[in-house]
Amino acid sequence: MSAPRKLSGLQKDVLRLYRDCLRAVRTKPEEAQPRFYAFTRREFEKNIGSMKRTDVKAIEYLMRIGRRRLEQYRNPNVRDIGQG
């Protein structure tokens, strides 16, 4: 059995953003939470297959977008999310 693979700092940042997004969903009304969860998962999965781990600039760019979106959705006035 081999030792678990260590994550890079960037990988840890992506996972941290994902966890923060999931935590933010719990602050939304119960009836809207499934839509927020689905949106969050879809946004993260959208780029998994098409992006290389070594494409640091693109990953950092998407992280900035993700952080901005998270801040928008953390706003208590945002009660639901539209499906697009």
From TrEMBL:
Domain Complex 1 LYR protein: 13-72
Gene Ontology BP annotations: mitochondrial respiratory chain complex II assembly
GO CC annotations, alphabetized: mitochondrial matrix
UniProt keyword Mitochondrion present: yes
Transmembrane segments: none
Main location: mitochondrion
Protein name, as recorded: Complex 1 LYR protein domain-containing protein
